[in-house]
Each structure stands twice: as C-alpha cells, then as structure tokens.
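Suppose you are handed a protein chain with no further information: no name, no annotation, nothing but its sequence. What can you learn? This example shows the usual starting point.
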Amino acid sequence: MKTLRYFLTVCLCIGMYTLSVGQAPTATETTSKFLKKESGNSLVITVQGQPKNVRAVLTESLKSETGSKPKLILASSMTSFQGVTFNKISRDQMDYHFKVEKAGKNANNSQVTFFVSAGNNNFLTSADYPTEMRIAK
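A reasonable first move is to predict its three-dimensional structure. Written in structure tokens, the prediction is:
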C-alpha cells in the first residue's frame, strides 16, 4: 500500500509539473502580409505576454545582439533592423523585421510575425536557407 501511494504521488507530481511548464511554443513557416501591397515568407508564433511588452523585449534583444537601432515602419507597425549581422542566425548581413499583434481574444497572448530577408525584401525560405530558418525558429 505504501508503494502504491508513493507511485501515485510521483505520478501526480509529474503531471502537475507538465501542466505548469506546458509545451514551448513553436514557430510556423508561412506567407504573411509584409507591407500594404507585399507578402513574404515568415515565421509566426504565439507567445504569452501583452503585445507592447513582447515588442519591447524583442526590440531590446535584437538591438543588443546586432548593435543596431531599430526602424519603426508606422504604416504596418513593423519593427525593422536592416543590414545587420545577427550571429545567432547568420554571419551575413540581413534584414530582420517583426510585428507583434494581439493573438485572438486574450489580451495576454501575442502573435509575433518574423521576417528574415537577404535584402530588397528577398525573404528567406526553408528550401533556400534551411540552416538559417531552422535557427530562426
């Protein structure tokens, strides 16, 4: 009986831990609207956090990693880092753009759309840049 109680307690603890941690969100590769008249290959992910906070964290992280200041494209609420080196993804100079929007009805979830471009809005795809896109995910 003692062994059964111990076993059930361990199972309960593992189940509670799994529920509390949850699964890490994963990015999906898709085509998204980039600017008003243009679409491009992108990575989309839904994360916990209000859009303004997620945007601030992403902006500060990219600013720190690239040593560059962002450019805000007001018409699309897009934040851009152009012609920068982000060594975690590629040693080449690239353009990184992202927008953060509220995901669904929950104000505490954000959808991040992330574009990586080799310049002139030539967006990277997994077919052409498998390593970079795998790392970006």
